[in-house]
Task: structure prediction
Amino acid sequence: MSISDTVLNTVWETQKSSFASFGDFINAMYAKIAQGFVYYRWLITYLFGASPLAEQHFFKPGEGPTHYVRSLRSSNFGLSAAIQPDFTSVRHYVNSIEDNIQGGKLFSEAEYHGSVRIKSATGHLQDMLKNGADYLEIRMLDLDPSTAVGVRTSTVRFFRILLTYFMMTDPLAPADQINGKLTQGIAMNEVVAMENPMQQTIYHHEAQTFIDQLQQFGATIQWGPEYQEVLDTMQDRIDNPRQTPSATLCDHIVDESLTSYALMMANRYQRRARENPRPFTGFQNHPDMSVEELRQQLFGVNGRPEKFSSRQSNGSS
Result:
């Protein structure tokens, strides 16, 4: 996820006096957003968790949970990070990742499997200190098997809501307290991930308070009806945990397995793909396809994603 250059430049005009450079301003925005996503991962796990059980032989005998959960992947049983970076600022983040690499706890930045990673388009951590971060990798979502692409449009819109809210509101805590706040959020996520998906979370009050804040914020900046619908859907999931993805998946468990459901959905998506009047055949007919040709094949001329802007080459645009 990234902030458009138009938004960054607009906000920068009102914040110039508070920062030494445009790069410092960009990093302050991305650090604040990253902090928000790290802390509220517990709510994201509740709303979008979709891994209630592991298939046979995934765990050794005696290991793993003994009940269905919201998200195995988001718990300590799943993809978890061995280290917790310092999210006080982008500089602290870069230094903490590099310290862990030098200390032998990580082979490279890519081995850090945390829920959020602050990234440079060049792939070099140090470039962010000069030019500013380019985007965030948001890594806490389970794949949603109820849609062919693994993530729903409503989910993407909710993450846009979160990004906007985190960018435009005050930080979660003062700089000297932020990592303690994030540690609290990480602990809350472990609790939520291991809860029975059919039951209300013990953090129901906190979830409702935050959704109310998003509603108030949305009314202030006048979000469109499509975003209000997303918040209504999230409210329904908070009110009724059986509407969450993980609880819905539990309805499809047969003999302690989701294999039959997975195959049913896979066959459905395969049939749809074959019925597509313009199927993508991959590299079968064009093994030397260029990046531009591949982009047009996948997204079409009008639907292709925008490329990264080259702040590295021009300094601030």
In short: The CA atoms of residues 22 and 316 lie 7 Å apart.
